[in-house]
Structure of Demethylmenaquinone methyltransferase:
Amino acid sequence: MFDAVAARYDLTNTVLSMGQDRSWRKAVARAVDARPGERVLDLAAGTGTSSLPFRDAGADVVPCDFSVGMLREGKRRHPELAFTAGDATRLPFRDATFDAVTISFGLRNVNDTEGALREMLRVTRPGGRLVVCEFSRPTWAPFETVYVEYLMRALPSVATAVSSNPDAYVYLAESIRAWPDQAGLAAIVRRAGWERAAWRNLTGGVVALHRGFRPTTG
């Protein structure tokens, strides 16, 4: 499915989010706080747009994605990045390889959420950090009603106009509705072994930024 939408994926996301995707990426970059010389794993990186802030900060970033079509499009646009094909539940990296692991709008597409978070823990160095950016639940009830209506009715219509595979966005809308709320995802992060799990709402809870840290011992 993601192979089919690779060519216009970034444009479609910008249109469907009404330009909010740019501010969400900036929030992720601030939360990761990549520094020169650090190694950052960017999961569900798609075409690599989300990896650029880490590269620009001087970190050694590895964009990783399950979709080979996305990776091909990303390599065409950003040949300098080390695009890597990988399954989030069986990452092709050694233990304790990265200072930070991040995933934006991809965790809900993994078939084993907790298993993927445990794999992220495995490849993160002790004391290293996790940043997850994912769709969540609006905190104001009247807005949540409008938001759900947009997801199920307007989003597929808009996607038809701008996406190379609008049917994929029907699935995406349904996956957002089925996803845990902020507290629910934080509980899964803790069960996977991450410490100090916390979140911050963006855009009134439409998106939530989750953080965690790998324990320094054990």
